[in-house]
Amino acid sequence: MSSTTVTKLPTGTWSVDPIHSSIGFGVKHLGVSTFRGNFKAAAGSVVTEGDAIRSIEGTVRVENLVTEEPGLTGHLHSEDFFDVAKYPELTFKSTSIEQSEDGRLRVSGELTLRGVTRPVELDAEIEGAAEGPDGNWRVGIAANGAIDRSDWGMTWNNPLANGALAVGERVTLNLHVEAVLKV
Fold first, then answer.
1. Each residue of 115-150: pLDDT tens digit?
2. Which of 167, 165, 169, 166 has the alpha carbon at shortest distance from 150?
3. Residue 99 half-sphere exposure, CB side, CA atoms within 13 Å?
4. Sequence-separated (6 or more) residues with CB below 8 Å from residue 165
5. Where are the alpha helices (DSSP H) in 19-126?
6. What angle do CA 24, 30, 33 make, to 5 degrees?
7. Euclidean distance between CA atoms 60 and 182, whole angstroms
8. Of 52, 45, 55, residue with least CA distance to 16
9. Of 2, 15, 31, 173, whose CA is between 20 and 30 Å from 56?
10. Contact assessment for residue 45 and residue 15, using Cβ atoms and an 8 Å cutoff
């Protein structure tokens, strides 16, 4: 017998809390380790109805990309990667959300990056939902997926003598979003 996990969610539109949310990525560096970066100040919304998430939308300003090295951040802002001067934002908009019996979510959507819109699928889960001490309802959602950066025109690379690439083509996406129910 399987059990169904359902998190109780009030119906409404929720605003992404940029302070308590993180939008991150990881990519293989020199074929030996994973480099991670984060975007600060995400914006967006989550729509719920009947204890289910019906839609998710989000936007980040590429200028809010954070790394530990200013020179690397500058290179990621350049035409080689995000081309922030020409494409200042990246966006995501869900096209469907399926919930399995165990409560896991399969979020299909469109990611627009560098002016290119392509489909993306994310595995997600509701981490929790509760009314906070301020009386506002909050929901936490974690999502993961992967893309091939060359599909969005990020093709800069440097092949190494050992056959590895300076920067991997596969990029993992890691999102932890907290949203507040609008009243």
1. 999 999 999 999 999 999 999 999 999 999 999 999
2. 169
3. 16
4. 28, 31, 157, 158, 159
5. 70-77
6. 50
7. 20
8. 45
9. 2
10. yes
CA distances from 59 to 44, 51, 78 (A): 6, 24, 19
User: What 3-state DSSP class applies to 130?
Assistant: strand
d(CA 14, CA 131): 13
The amino acid at 126: I
Amino acid at 154: M
Strand partners, 179: 16, 139
Q: What is the 3-state secondary structure (H, E, C) of 123-163?
A: EEEEEEEEECCCCCEEEEEEEEEEEEHHHHCCCCCCECCCC
Q: Is the pTM here over 0.85, yes or no?
A: yes
Start-end of H helices in 99-157: none
Is the pLDDT confidence value at 48 over 60? yes
Q: Which residue has the tokens 């309802």?
A: 137
